[in-house]
Here is the input.
Amino acid sequence: MGATQAELIEVALKHSNAEASFDMAGTLGTLQANPVYELFPVALKFEGMDMARRYYEHYFAEVAPRIVSFRLIGRWINEQGLNEEYSIVHKADGEEPRAYRIIGILTFGENLLSGERIYADEKLLKIMFAPIWDELKPTAP
Here is the structure.
């Protein structure tokens, strides 16, 4: 039997908190065995725990330390997942800090998160997913 919506919301909040504290084990521990991450508006995706691990290794080592500030704008929940909108300021190497908006939808699986849909500026997506960018596949229409 699958988790209740309340339990899945708790998993999603654990995921968000683990990401915010650079906790690799905690972040990956909230994902089902074959998570799917979809990126928009570029309409690309990746699947699998190995790709998720590679993404988070890069994110925690290279991207998160360059986030100058972030603020949760809002959070919405429905039967499909937990949606969070953030305002962040990121400083890429050799550039001035730049403000971005990100919408991340943590999608519910049976007992854990089935993955995430991330809506962000293409430049930021390329920074976030740099080591696996060339391995991303098109999303289904």
Helices lie at 5-20, 24-28, 49-63, 122-128. The radius of gyration is 14 Å.
